[in-house]
Amino acid sequence: MNNDVVSLDDIETVTKRALRAHGATDSIAAGVAHAVRVAEANGNRICGLYYLESYCRQLRSGRVDGRVEPVVYHDRAGAVRVDAKFGFAQSAFAAGFDTAVAAAKANGTCGYAIEHSHTCTSLGYFTEQFAKVGLVAVGATNSTARVAPPGGSRPLLGTNPIAMAVPGPGSSVAFQFDFSTSAVALGKITMAASAGTVIPGGWAVDENGDDTTDPEAALRGSLVSAGGYKGYGLGLMVEVLAAALTGSLASVDVPALKAADGPPHDLGQFYLLIDPESFSGDAFADNLARLAERVDEQPGARLPGASRASADAVKVDSELWATAVRLSQTSGRDLV
């Protein structure tokens, strides 16, 4: 595999131009492009440029509306909802962000629901924003059914990630995590299939429910939950939060996310926001500091996401970057 070293500024600029060229407004394109930039900066390749071509194809086909105005509802003190109206999750999230933050700080907690949106890709991108303004945030979203229940062989749940971000001093993030409740993210299976490589055992089962190391057989079969019944329970919890509470689609009804044509994704995200000042006050920061000290006492240990290295440029697959540049230079009529 050949790689190019590409600046994060160029990644964001090219992504924004590509989205605009295929039908997104300036502000919506900017929001999605920034999310792509952050994903690439964090080494989260699956949620970065990997999705750009499908975004552009879906803008052209109408699967995602790149010009829609989300609608924010704040009918109850501790509940904020945003109807994404089948647009991008990033613009819907931004539309209600300030309202949700104010509600959490006024009431101590707030439930923040994004309804009927395109896939949000990296869930941690959103919870991190809450932590930077002083809130503890737990987020959940679902996706196309890919995970069979323990003992089963047919997909029931999406990879159904859960994320948490915890505020640190000032506008910093003390720690954060973002992981799928399946044994592995679907993108790692599809990337292995594209590369013609095997996958580790314990990631997936074939159509007969037997463990497989063949990524093609895994794609025809199902992923499995992380930790067996424990991960299955977490996946079900995410399904309730992300689908049932937002009135969006259940995983079994969500169409393939990267297909160019078809109905909108109609996904939901749900965030539980907690204002530490409303509960333990200064004791929150003191306890967090002691926790970090205990972790740091152990060589090689760290809080998740607490020591991310910053960089101005990253390595990008050469073919992927060439596709991104091409998309930024065309109106996209050749895509559909």
Can you tell me about this structure?
- The protein is α+β, with helices and mostly antiparallel strands.
- Helix content is 37%, strand content 19%.
- It has 10 helices and 12 strands.
- The strands form 3 sheets. The chain has a 7-stranded mixed β-sheet with strand order 2-3-4-11-5-6-7, with helices on both faces. A 3-stranded antiparallel β-sheet has the order 9-8-10.
- A hairpin with a 5-residue loop joins strand 8 (204-205) and strand 9 (211-212).
- Helix 1 (8-21) crosses helix 10.
- The longest helix has 19 residues, at 89-107.
- It is globular.
- The relative contact order is 0.18.
- The model has no long low-confidence stretch (mean pLDDT 94).
Order of helices and strands: EHHHEEHEHEEEHEEHEHEHEH
How are strands sequenced across the largest beta sheet? 2-3-4-11-5-6-7
Helicity range: 25-40%
End-to-end C-alpha gap: 28 Å
Count of DSSP strands: 12
| Average of pLDDT | 94
Helix-strand makeup class: alpha+beta
Ranges with pLDDT <50 over ≥5 residues?
Answer: none
* Overall geometry: globular
CA gyration radius, whole angstroms: 20 Å
Largest sheet geometry: 7 strands, mixed
By DSSP (H or I, 4+ residues per run), the number of helices equals 10
Percent range for β-strand residues: 15-25%
Briefly say what this structure is.
Helix content is 37%, strand content 19%. It has ten helices and twelve strands.
How do the strands and helices of this protein lay out in sequence?
Blueprint: E1 3-7, H1 8-21, H2 26-41, H3 52-61, E2 71-76, E3 79-83, H4 89-107, E4 109-117, H5 124-131, E5 136-141, E6 162-167, E7 173-179, H6 186-195, E8 204-205, E9 211-212, H7 215-220, E10 222-223, H8 229-244, E11 267-274, H9 282-296, E12 313-317, H10 318-328
Parallel strand pairs: 3-4
Antiparallel strand pairs: 1-12, 2-3, 4-11, 5-6, 5-11, 6-7, 8-9, 8-10
